[in-house]
């Protein structure tokens, strides 16, 4: 049976470390603060924002919530972001995606100061990652690296396959694995021989958004399988992109859904926010 990589436990450890860091910053008069902006009442977004507020409360990070009506104009939103960029008491700015259809997501992301881009989505943050400069890294891929490292899984020299090429997960994931000296292949909807490529992977990261797509035939014996997907099945149970029951006996290590990658995203957001306060205030 595979090692089950416990995202709940690892994310809890990271939040404890952040809590200690935040307490140390507060003792120097620095109060880390995250501004969270939500436009409209998308139910999933409301749940995510609520979870972020809870994590802030737990770690001691101040959270400021800006809940804007659906009809807010793009210029009103950009004006709020610019104001928060200038506010020295705010260390992280997050706009909960998706935004309403009348808004330009790319322009919104570009307006956030890279120094406060704790989501790691700004083009400058992405560029910094690609050339190995300091900057914030998208929280889900950063969390996956922590899952691997804290589970004692070696990345150096391993054959790593990332399935999915989104800007939020797939591309930064590939760059982070490369940074850790993995040999990286990125697969996507146009990839030929997907099963064959996946079945050679020592570390397989599944991020395509198709429930239970990856069965045992995609997985090499004793491979590490990281499942980024989250779906609710016909039975109302949560599942990932990987058919967990079919793969668990073959893999060497696997993340469950729920309780694998999911909790890591918010833990890394808290970590980025505390780190932003450190960088902006010049303290370690």
Would you give an account of this structure?
The protein is 42% helix and 15% strand. It contains ten helices and eleven strands. α6 (139-150) packs across α7 (170-179) and α6 (139-150) packs across α10. It starts with a strand and ends with a helix. The mean pLDDT is 96.
Brief descriptors of the model:
284 residues, alpha/beta, Rossmann fold, 2 domains, 6-stranded parallel beta sheet, 3-stranded parallel beta sheet, 11 strands, 42% helix, 15% strand
N- to C-terminal separation? 42 Å
Shape: globular
β-sheet strand percentage: 15-25%
CATH topology of the largest domain: Rossmann fold
Low-confidence stretches: none
CATH superfamily of the largest domain: NAD(P)-binding Rossmann-like Domain
Give the C-level CATH assignment of the largest domain.
Alpha Beta
Helical content class: 40-55%
Tally of structural domains: 2
Strand order of the largest sheet: 1-11-8-7-5-6
| Number of strand segments | 11
| Secondary-structure element order, N to C | EHEHEHEHHHEHEHEEEEHEH
Q: How does the SSE layout of this entry go?
A:
Elements: E1 3-4, H1 7-27, E2 33-39, H2 43-59, E3 62-68, H3 74-86, E4 92-95, H4 105-111, H5 123-131, H6 139-150, E5 159-163, H7 170-179, E6 183-187, H8 194-198, E7 203-206, E8 224-227, E9 231-232, E10 238-239, H9 244-247, E11 253-254, H10 262-281
Helix pairs in contact: 1-10, 2-10, 6-7, 6-10
């Amino acid at each position: 049976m595979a090692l089950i990589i416990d995202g709940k436990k690892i994310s809890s450890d990271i939040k404890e470390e952040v809590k200690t860091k935040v307490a140390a910053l507060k003792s120097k008069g620095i109060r880390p603060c995250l501004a969270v902006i939500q436009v409209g009442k998308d139910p999933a977004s409301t749940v995510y924002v609520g979870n972020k507020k809870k994590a802030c409360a737990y770690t001691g990070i101040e959270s400021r919530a800006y809940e804007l009506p659906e009809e807010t104009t793009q210029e009103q939103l950009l004006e709020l972001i610019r104001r928060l960029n200038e506010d020295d008491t705010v260390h992280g700015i997050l706009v909960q995606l998706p935004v309403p259809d009348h808004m330009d997501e790319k322009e919104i992301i570009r307006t956030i100061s890279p120094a406060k881009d704790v989501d790691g989505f700004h083009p400058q943050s992405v560029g910094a990652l690609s050339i190995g400069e300091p900057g914030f890294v998208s929280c889900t891929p950063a969390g996956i690296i922590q899952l691997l490292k804290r589970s004692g899984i070696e990345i150096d020299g391993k054959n790593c396959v990332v399935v999915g090429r989104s800007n939020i997960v797939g591309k930064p994931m590939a760059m982070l694995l490369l940074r850790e000296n993995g040999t990286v292949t990125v697969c996507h909807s146009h990839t030929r021989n997907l099963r064959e490529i996946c079945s050679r992977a020592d570390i397989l990261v599944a991020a395509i958004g198709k429930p239970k797509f990856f069965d045992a035939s995609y997985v090499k014996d004793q491979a590490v399988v990281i499942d980024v997907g989250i779906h609710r099945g016909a039975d109302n149970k949560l599942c990932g992109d990987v058919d967990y029951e079919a793969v668990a006996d073959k893999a060497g290590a696997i993340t469950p859904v729920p309780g694998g990658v999911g909790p890591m995203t918010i833990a890394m957001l808290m970590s980025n926010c505390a780190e932003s306060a450190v960088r902006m205030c010049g303290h370690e």
